[in-house]
Design brief:
single chain; about 425 residues; alpha/beta; Aspartate Aminotransferase, domain 2; Aspartate Aminotransferase, domain 1; 2 domains; 7-stranded mixed β-sheet; 4-stranded antiparallel β-sheet; 16 helices; 15 strands; about 45% helix; globular; binds pyridoxal-5'-phosphate
């Protein structure tokens, strides 16, 4: 679809909503303008194709389909069955998985399903500490995972800021956990799933590898896959995979029944069939050479952006990046992550504040910002733009002067105008 066709598509969509609901239509229009004009560097965000969007906005949202293809608790499931079978088969092909459940509404639900299928309340679970890159659902005290299980957190090494596999092995030997959870939300390096699986199996533990962030790289073979060596692999579908918001669980055939029961009726009721159809569309896209090329550019862009920022004197957690994201460490006496996020936001550059390993600031303030390249790469930006973006970030972070931030915002808008997203507002 070309830019003119895109413009017509969105104008039509917003008009249809606007006919009965001008207030919501105005919010849709304003958000599209924000996405068009801003520089999206949040590592967990991306821009889906029009085909994915169209499937999301389809009549499949009308259908109740509790159960699984061929075994629904409601009549009239023959066409949603087609969509779910396509999604399952394409996901299996994409990741080489023995069994896939595409129904989890989100990454959090996918993880909850694995816990439900494997653990009893009070069981010991090893999870990577949130401030060292893990996720809330890996055992944070405020999350159901932390409230339900006895969580033993593992950390990164102080010197390298990479996962301390030796300490992880010691913890596994000492605690004999039911489950070891690995995978991260803010970890810029390759994760050695094979080593973690070996550690787990030595202690009689199972592994849940949560590849929510790195699923795209795993799918195209640009990050080692946990699928062959880990019992359970969970993911979101909306980050590097570039599909609709949602989750998915993959597992070995022997756990297929337990996982399906855990997702429904264990954790969820009716599946979101329009989202499952959109997952099928996104998986088909991810099976194309164009997607592999896209992921290659995401990685190249991250390396360039990281190196350019380092050349300007900025510190990166672990000294660089192997994936789609980097963690800029602002230092204990620099500006806080919160301040940096706000300031970059004023300049039209969207990032999120993040803690860094062994942070002395509270999580809500943080000493770092997380920066990712999936979304800007989806717009078509390449190494030249990464160099410009590094210079813009550097100017904003080094200046207390609001006029500088406003000037950078104008430059951001000029840059994004050259890479139109979903038709101009
Ligand atoms: C994003 C993320 C999730 C949660 O996904 P939601 O869809 O927001 O529930 C889970 N695990 C990791 C590692 C993530 O990065």
């Amino acid at each position: 679809m070309n830019q003119v066709e895109r413009k017509i598509y969105f104008a039509r969509q917003e008009d249809i909503v606007g006919t009965t609901d001008p207030e919501v239509a105005a919010a849709l229009r304003a958000e599209r303008r924000r996405e068009n004009e801003g520089l999206e560097l949040i590592a967990s965000e991306n821009f889906v194709s029009l085909a994915v969007l169209a499937a999301l906005g389809s009549v499949l949202t009308n259908k109740y389909a509790e159960g699984y293809p061929g075994k629904r608790y409601y009549g009239g499931g023959e066409f949603v069955d087609v969509a779910e079978e396509l999604a399952r088969n394409r996901a299996k092909q994409l990741f080489g998985a023995e069994h896939v459940n595409v129904q989890p509404h989100s990454g959090a639900q996918a993880n909850m399903s694995v816990y439900l299928a494997t653990c009893q309340p009070g069981d010991v679970v090893l999870g990577m500490d949130l401030s060292h890159g893990g996720h809330l659902t890996h055992g944070h005290p405020l999350n159901y995972s932390g409230k339900t299980f006895q969580i033993v957190p593992y950390l990164v090494r102080k010197d390298t800021e990479t996962i301390d596999y030796d300490a992880l092995r010691d913890l596994a030997r000492a605690h004999k956990p039911k489950l070891i959870v690995c995978g991260a939300s803010a970890y810029p390096r390759i994760i050695d799933f094979q080593t973690i699986a070996d550690i787990a199996h030595e202690s009689g533990s199972m592994v849940m590898a949560d590849i929510a962030h790195i699923a795209g790289m795993v799918a195209v073979g640009m990050h080692p896959s946990p699928v062959p060596c880990c019992e359970f692999v969970t993911t979101t579908t909306h980050k590097t995979l570039r599909g609709p918001r949602g989750g998915m669980v993959m597992c070995k055939a022997q756990f297929a029944e337990a996982i399906d029961k855990a997702v429904f009726p264990g954790v969820q009721g009716g599946p979101l069939m329009h989202v499952i159809a959109a997952k099928a569309v996104a998986f088909a896209e991810a099976l194309t050479p164009a997607y592999k090329d896209y992921i290659g550019r995401v990685l190249a862009n991250a390396r360039t952006l990281c190196a350019e920022l380092q050349a300007r004197g900025w510190n990166m957690v672990s000294g660089g990046t192997d994936n789609h994201l980097m963690l800029l460490n602002l230092g204990a006496d620099g500006i806080s992550g919160k301040k940096a996020e706000e300031r970059l936001g004023r300049a039209g550059i969207t990032v999120n504040k993040n803690t860094v390993p062994f942070d002395t600031r509270k999580p809500y303030i943080g000493s770092g910002v997380r920066i990712g390249t999936p979304a800007v790469t989806s717009r078509g930006m390449g190494p030249d733009e990464m160099k410009r973006i590094a210079a813009l970030i550097d100017r904003v972070l080094r200046s207390e002067d609001e006029a500088v931030w406003t000037q950078v915002k104008a430059e951001v808008e000029e840059l994004t105008r050259a890479f139109p997203l979903y038709g101009e507002a």
